[in-house]
Amino acid sequence: MEGLKDVIRDYVTKEYLEADSDPLDNDTPLISGGIVDSFSMVSLKRFLENRYRIQIPDDKATPEAFDSVNKIATLVEEFVAKKG
Amino acid sequence: MSNIGSYEDRVKDFSWSISERELEYTPGEVINIGWYATDRICRLGRGAKPALIHEGFTGVKRTYTYNDIRLATNAIGSFLRGLGIQDRDRVCLFLDRIPELYLGFLGILKIGAIAQPLFSAFGDESLYIRLSNAGTSAVITQKKHVAKVRKVLDRLPHVKHIITVDHDGKAPLKEREVAFSLEAAPAVENFAVFPTRAESPSVLHYTSGTTGQPKGVQHVHYSLISQYLTAKWVLDLRDDDIYWCTADPGWVTGTSYGIIAPFSLGVTQCVLDAGFSAEAWYRFIEKQRVTMWYSAPTAIRSLMKAGDGLVKKFDVSSLRHLASVGEPLNSEAVLWSQRVFGRPFLDTYWQTETGCIVISNYPGMEVRPGSMGKPFPGITATILNPANHEPHPAHGKIGLVALRSGWPSMMRTYWNNEEAFKNKHRKGWYLTGDRARTDQNGYFWFVGRDDDVINTAGHLVSPFEVESALLEHPAVAESAVVSKPDPLNLEVVKAFVTLKPGFSPSQDLDLEIMNFIRKKLSPLAMPQEVEYVDSLPKTRSGKIMRRILHAKEWGEDIGDTSTLEND
Question: What share of chain B is helix, strand, coil (3-state, %, to 5)?
Fold first, then answer.
């Protein structure tokens, strides 16, 4: 999906990083690195669901699946494909 | 045999002087937690023993011996003194779980200043409220969080220093900022620890109530007496333990049992500074050979959710004792841990205000899954009749959990709020704000909060604070905040809002409101659901009736609605 990773990375940068923070790359650990905690993951999940009109079940929204831009993109692509 | 031995015998013969004798503390003499946690252990000949094993999220491991932490805390204390920080000044620690948080805490105490740890995920408004109330002199933080401090600095003239512990020189320091590097700091072998006494203030933790702004719970150095003995008897800490307390020192568990107690006992503790992941946690236990594990129900339920199969991939056989804190531990979690770890998580009950465990299940005592356990020896706990604040004469009646004031780590006051402190007491009892009942064998059973405070994942969130912040959002006209049930976190925040003219409900607005609160207050305070309503239930005098919304969320009877407007 064109630009998916850019969209996720820009959103995380805008919403979860403070000014002057080191820039994110697509493999930066988000959950294990403490950038996004388990509570904040709820709003990130909500953003993805709103933007891509998908529903990510709670059992798929694990800390491991949300741990980097690359992993989130894989998850989103899976549910977008299921939607058809 | 556990450290406590027979609970009944301990209750019979109990005196806090047991702890004083073991710590070789003579009442009336100097008592400084920073010294007890570092210098004293070295004097006992254990300076070469690992005190802190720290692992960051990248897997980098650093080990500090007791002599290392003695020198490091001396260096931090010396640096703070050099800045002009004096005894009783408030010094905030606004840090992730990096070594500087643990060592900075003790360094602050060593100079007689008051340590004010704050959860590093707090948003700028939460930070401002707490720094402003405490009249904080200095903030120790890191590059990642300094922007939040800068945002509120203009409104905090009393903050004279912002100390950044990982300044890399890439961007210039700004007004009032100074860099400190633990690695580069010169070793300070001889350091004059400030001669604090039993009643000298030590720690200021902020906690949320139903109304008003968060309150600063003030503890004193004498709290060590309770924290030491409860850790020894309940957590059963022993000299050869590898101890892991998963709590963040931004909250009281992380300081009482993540810094003060284990270090004063001379135990080796390990810290994992990484976000939660079941796999990472099991790997950490396996790698560090953790023997005693003190965690929280939300984490335990998350581990349960990850499945039994995952545990089996790791060698967790080193675990010999498990305990839990923060919110009631459901019986399923107790039974699950018995099945997968071969031992139950023992629930412990206490609060920021109590400073130490006050009701608990004990090693060697029969565990009743789902129960809070029994009062710690030396603690008098009861269930009060809310109507007259007298103890219920019979078991089984639900009432207010109350504690007879007077144990060493009981808070001494709420910072600058003596009235709130007085309001927490009735007839010599400290009112915890929780409801429970006892059974015929003296076990306490948690029922719920007696107020509107939301306990989410073991952290208290004030509905008032969230409602006030919501009103600052341009779309929100009115708001009411209650808890809603959550299988993982026990409760989460739910907001009911009415919108101003020109705004209409949408999924994007939901998200905008959620993020607004997350950044302003904290991720814990972020509503996980926003419901738009045409009007909120109010009394005829205009007060919002949260209890009606709460009852609906929890499927409870809404009770008396005779005072409801438009009813």
Answer: 30, 25, 45
Q: A64 vs B273: CB contact, 8 Å cut-off?
A: no
- Which site among B94, B98, B164, B277 would you substitute to test the A interface, given the most A Cβ atoms closer than 10 Å to its Cβ? B277
Q: Residue A24 and residue A10: Cα distance in Å, rounded?
A: 9
Assess contact for B561 and B567: CB atoms under 8 A. Answer: yes
**Total domains in the fold of chain A:** 1
CA geometry: angle B302, B305, B311, nearest 5 deg = 90
pLDDT tens string B100-148: 999 999 999 999 999 999 999 999 999 999 999 999 999 999 999 999 9
Q: How far apart are CA B88 and CA A54, in angstroms?
A: 54
- Here the CATH number for the domain that contains residue A35 is 1.10.1200.10
* pLDDT at A56 > cutoff 80: yes
Distance from CA of B276 to the nearest CA of A (A): 7
CB B123 within 8 A of CB B149: no
What is the pTM for the complete model shown? 0.93
Interface residue B205 vs chain A (CB under 8 A): no
Residue B198 near residue B27 (C-beta atoms within 8 A): yes
Which ipTM did the prediction report? 0.94
Q: Do A20 and B145 touch (CB under 8 A)?
A: no
Using CA atoms, how far apart are residues B420 and B443, in angstroms rounded to an integer? 30
